[in-house]
Amino acid sequence: MSAFLRGYLSVLVFGFAAVAMVGAMLGAGRLLRPSRPQPQKYIAYESGVDPVGTGWSQSQVRYYIFALLFVMFDVEAVFIFPWAIRLEALGIFGLVEMLIFIVILALGLVYAWRKGVLRWV
Amino acid sequence: MYSKREAVGSVTLAGDPLFGGGVDGAVVLIVLLKTGVAFAALMVSVLFMVWFERKVVSDMQNRIGPNRAGPWGTLQTLADGIKLFFKEDLLPEQADRRIFRLAPYLSIVPAFLAFAVVPLGGVITIAGRETRLQLADPPVGILFLLAMSSVAVYGVMLAGWSSGSKYPLLGSVRASAQMVSYEAALGLSMAAVVLVTGSLLTSDIVSEQSRSIVDWNLFRLGFLPFGIFLVAATAELNRPPFDLVEAEQELVGGFHTEYSSLRFALFFLAEFMSTVTMSAVMVTLFLGGPSGPGPDRGFPGAFLPVFWFLAKLMIFLFIYVWLRATLPRLRYDQLMDLGWKRLIPLSLFWLLVLAAMILDRRYGFAVFGAGILLGLLLLRAVQVGQSATDDAAGAAPAVREAG
Fold first, then answer.
1. Does residue B181 sit in the same domain as residue B220?
2. A64 and A116 share a domain?
C-alpha cells in the first residue's frame, strides 16, 4: 500500500463504522417494531385525501438550466484548486491567465443573467 | 490583511506521522481506537446539538422546552430515538424500494466521513507512536470535504424521488437545485483558503493559522469568504432560513414525508450530524481549528486545543440555532438570486483580489478597482438589456429585477 493511500485507511475504517451503525440500528429496529399491514397505510401521503394520479409526476424543466450552470462552475473549481496551490510558483503569469479565464466565465454568467435564465418565474 | 507567505517549494504529501513507518498491528489498533473515539464524540455531539437546539429555541420563544427526560431534559433526544425504534416502518406502495432503502445511508455516511478530516488538536503520542488528533489526514483533505458535501445531495434527492409521492418529489427537486446552486459558492470560498495556505491538507490549514489570532483565515481573507461560506453552508445543510427542501407549510415534510420509524430518525440524525460537521469545518477553515486566541506554538498537550476547538464549535452551533429562531424562510426566487447573482460573482471577484494581493499589494488594489468598475458596467449592461427586452415584449416594467 502506497503512502498516498495509507492516509485513507482511517477514512475507510470510519466509513465502515458508519455503515455498520446504520445497519445495526435498522436491524435492531426490525426486531423491535410491530408490523400490522393494512393497505391504507401504504398509500402515498397527500394531505389526508386519496392521492390524485400517480406519484411519479414530472417536474418543471426550468431546473435543468441551473444544473448546466453548475457544471460550468464546477469545472471551474477543478482548474482553480491546483492553481490556488501553486500560485506563487506561477507568479504573474498564472494570475493573468486565471484573470482571463474567470472573466470569460463571468461573461457567461452575465449572458445567462441578461437572457433572463436566472430569473425565477 | 495578511503577511506574504514564503514560497512553498513542493506540495507536501506527508499526512499523519502515524503511517510513516508502515502499517503494523499497533498502528491498526490506534486507528481503531481513534475511530471509536471520533465516532463516540460525533454521536454525543449530535445528541447534544438536538437538545441544545430545542432548549435554546424554546428559550428564544419564551417556552420551557424539554425538561422531563433526564436533568434539564438532556436525555430527550435519546428518548425520542428509542421511541422511533418501536414505530412501524412503512414503505409506500409506489416507492422505488431499493433506492428508498438506500437513501438514508447516502445521507448519513457523508456526514460521518467529512468529520474524519477535521483536526481536533495537534500531534499526540499513544503507546510510543506519534499521531495527530485527527482521524485522517488524506493528501486532498479539502477536496474530500467538498466531495462529501456533494454526496450528501444524493441522499436528500434520491429519498424524495424514490418515494413515489408528490410532496417528496417537489422537495427533492428543490433540494437538487438549491444545493447545486450554493455548492459553487462554497467551493470558491474554500479555494480562497487554499490560496493563502498553499496546501489542501486540513492539518496544514490549521497549523498555518496557529501562530496568533490575526493569522486566522477569518481576518486574513478579509471576512468575505467566511461570510459567503457561512451562507452557502447553511444552504447546503438545508437549515433555516434555507429549509425550502422541507418547508413544512408548503411541502408537509419535504423529501422525508414518506419516511417513518427509524429511517426517518436517520434523516433527522443526518441533518444534525451535518450541522455539527459543517460547523467543525468552518472552525477548521476560518477560525484556526484547535488554536487558542493567544500566540501559541503548535498545539501542545491534548486538553487545551480540544477545549478551544469545542468552544469555537459551540459558537457556530449557537449561530445555527439563532438563525433558525430569527429568520423567516426565503422564497425560492430570492434563494436563487442570492446564490447566482450575489454569492458566486462576489466570491469569484474576491478570489482574484486575494490572488493579486498575495503576489503584490499594488496588483491587489488594481484588481480590486478594476473588478468593481467592471462589475458596475456589467450590472448596468444587464439592466439596460433587461429593460430593452421588457419594452420590446411589452411586459410591465414594474416587475423588472432589482440590481
1. yes
2. yes
In tens, the pLDDT along B315-346 reads 999 999 999 889 888 888 888 888 888 888 88
Asked if A34 lies within 8 A of B88 by C-beta distance, the reply is yes
The predicted model scores a pTM of: 0.86
On whether both B86 and B182 belong to a single domain, the answer is: yes
Task: Tell me if chain A has a CB within 8 Å of the CB of B310.
Answer: no
Number of compact structural domains in chain A? 2
What stretches in chain A show pLDDT beneath 70?
Answer: 1-4, 55, 59-62, 120-121
DSSP string, B260-313: -HHHHHHHHHHHHHHHHHHHHHHHHHHS-TT--SS--SS--SSHHHHHHHHHHH
Residue B3 DSSP one-character state: P
Q: Is the ipTM of this complex over 0.90?
A: no
The range of the structural domain enclosing residue B354 comes to 4-359
**CA distances (Å), B92 to each of A41, A120, B8, in order?**
8, 32, 56
Question: With an 8 Å Cβ cutoff, are A28 and B85 in contact?
Answer: yes
- Rounded Cα–Cα distance for residues B156 and B135 (Å): 26
Q: Are residues A25 and A67 in the same domain?
A: no
Query: pLDDT digit string (tens) for B20-50?
Result: 666 677 777 888 888 888 888 888 888 889 9
One domain, residues A31 and A69: no
User: Are A84 and B164 inside 8 Å of each other by CB?
Assistant: no
Cβ-Cβ pairs closer than 8 A, A with B, add up to 249
Residues of B in contact with A22 (CB under 8 A): 104-105, 108-109, 266
Angle at A115 between CA A114 and CA A117, to 5 degrees: 110
Residue A30 within any structural domain of the chain = yes
**Digit-coded pLDDT (tens) for B89-110:** 888 888 888 888 888 888 889 9
Is the domain of A73 the same as that of A103?
yes
Q: Are residues B312 and B392 in the same domain?
A: no
Let me know if residue A46 belongs to a domain.
no
Q: Could you tell me the residue range of the domain that residue A19 belongs to? A: 1-38
- Cα–Cα distance, B275 to B322 (Å, whole number): 13
Residue B305 has pLDDT above 70, yes or no: yes
Q: Which residue of B has its CA nearest to A15?
A: B113
